[in-house]
Amino acid sequence: MKIENIQEVYYLFRKAQADYNNRGFRMPKDFEAHFSKKLSVVNQGKLTKITGFFFTKWSNIDPYTYFKCGFDLYKHRFSYVKFFNERILMLYKQRDKNEKREIRVTKRKLIDSAKFLKKYMEENEIFTLQEYIDTSDGNRKLAVTHYLKNEIDASFFVWLLKKGMKLTDEDRDYVPYITKQYRTINVLLSSDLKSFLSKIEEKI
After folding, report:
1. Residues of 104-124 as b/e, b for ≥16 C-beta within 10 angstroms?
2. Residue 89 to residue 50: CA distance in whole angstroms
3. Which of 103, 114, 163, 179 has its Cβ near the most Cβ atoms within 10 Å?
4. Is 125 left (phi over 0), alpha (psi -120 to 50) or beta?
C-alpha cells in the first residue's frame, strides 16, 4: 500500500476527529516518519489495512463519512482499534441509503463551493476556471483534493466535470460516490439550476 494513500486516509480520520471535537488539527510535516516512529505497530497495521479496504473492496465507501460514523458511535473512544467494528459499517450503510434516497443539489452548497474556489484561485494566482480544472495536485486533479477535503461539494465537482475536467482512472478511484451518482446529480444540475450556475460562473 502506497504511503501517499495511507496519508490520505490518515488525514480524513484526523479531520473527522477534529470536526467531531470542533477544533483544528495539523498534519505531520513528514508523514512517513510520523507513521513509522509515532504510531504503534498495532495502529500502523490498522491504518494500513483500512486504507487497503478503502482502495479495493470498500472503494464505494467515503472514508471521511465512515470515520464520522465511528465518532458518532464511540465518541472520544473511537480510535484505530475500532476501525473495523461492524456497527460502524452498519451505521454508514444506513446513512448512505438515506442520503441516496434524498440526493439534493442545493444552491447553498454550490455558492459555498464557488466562494472557496474564487478565494483559492485569487490566493494562488490561478486566473481562469479552465486553468483550475487543468491543475494537478501531485498525481491527481487539484479539484479531487479539494473534494476529498470537503472544500467543494459533490454537485460542484460534477459541474466542473461538465465544464470539461478530465479524470484519470486514479482520480476516479478517489471519488467513487461521484462516479456512482454522476447521472443523478447531472440531471439536477441540467434542469432547474442551469441559469443559476451560469451566474455563479460569471462571479468566479
Report:
1. ebeeeebeebbebbeeebeee
2. 12
3. 114
4. left
- Of 147, 26, 19, 1, residue with least CA distance to 78: 19
Give the other-Cβ count within 10 Å of 14's Cβ.
15
User: What's the rounded mean pLDDT across residues 41-70?
Assistant: 93
Q: Residue 23 is placed in which grid cell? A: 477544533
Grid coordinates representing 188 are: 439536477
pLDDT tens for 152-194 read 999 999 999 999 999 998 888 888 878 878 888 887 787 667 7
Calpha distance 155→11 (Å, rounded):
23
Q: How many Cβ atoms are within 10 Å of 20's Cβ, its own excluded?
A: 16
CB proximity list for 148: less than 8 A, separation 6 or greater: 8, 12, 64, 174, 175
Residue 191's pLDDT is 67
Separation in Å, CA 204 to CA 114, 120, 146, 161, 201 = 7, 10, 16, 16, 5
Residue identified by cell 473534494 is 147
pLDDT tens readout for residues 119-134: 999 999 999 999 999 9
